[in-house]
Amino acid sequence: MTTFQQPDPKDRPARLTVGVVGAGRVGPALAASLQLAGHRPVAVSGVSDASKRRAGALLPDVPLVPPADVLDRAELVLLTVPDDALPGLVEGLAETGAVRPGQLLVHTSGRYGASVLDPALRAGALPLALHPAMTFTGTPVDVQRLAGCSFGVTAPEELRLAAEALVIEMGGEPEWIAESARPLYHAALALGANHLVTLVAQSMELLRTAGVEAPDRMLGPLLGAALDNALRSGDAALTGPVARGDAGTVAAHVAELREHAPQAVAGYLAMARATADRALAHGLLKPELAEDLLGVLANGTADGTEGDAR
Question: Residue 132: enclosing H or E segment and its boundaries?
Fold first, then answer.
């Protein structure tokens, strides 16, 4: 794995004052990381008690001020608000004259590229989209996790080197994403990371129902090995009853889920169908076994029957 060694801050003369608009889980962590690189956080905005606590923990002694004051004080401003709030925030800041020419405006949304910052661009700001491909907790551990973390970077071509330099200063690894590819890029990350949490949580609930006292301890080594194998080998890492074509076992799973966790049936069937398709396409699932398996999955969706559990 590539290791990034941050240069000594005193060897880099272009230090910036940093502001954060939206003290959620991401903004304070990025500002704290930039502080380690020699930049100087000077202002942060936050509304909820939780956001104020996060700012206090990660950016002690940095004043809490309204968003317009953050832009007034900072040369580099991190806009770390929810995706749906970002366009309106940018438009409002630009319309009220809060944006200054030459100011670096960085948003961390995975969904949007640099074009969402066009109102600020017209006001003379320098727009950057830097999305860390990482899950955040809102605690100091997030700063450590940025080391080696990939960032989806989108910016005007003339700002590409500046955007990538900021990511490297935070210990991250820049990955260029075209403006048009941002929604697909973000969907891919959500499919892998967000849905993984749901799957793991459901699995732990089912194990508890089955009488397992420490489902986390049981799942840890299994899921760690499965993730490692998948990252190394892709579809070749597929194992289990779907990849083997064990229609009876899958039917038994569906029957048990219908009895003990009916809310999990739809997800199980959808993932089993996707797994079967990929196993077939890569020659792991034998076509002669696929017919019965796909029949079980279709019956589970169409009429609620479980098939022959054998």
Answer: strand 126-132
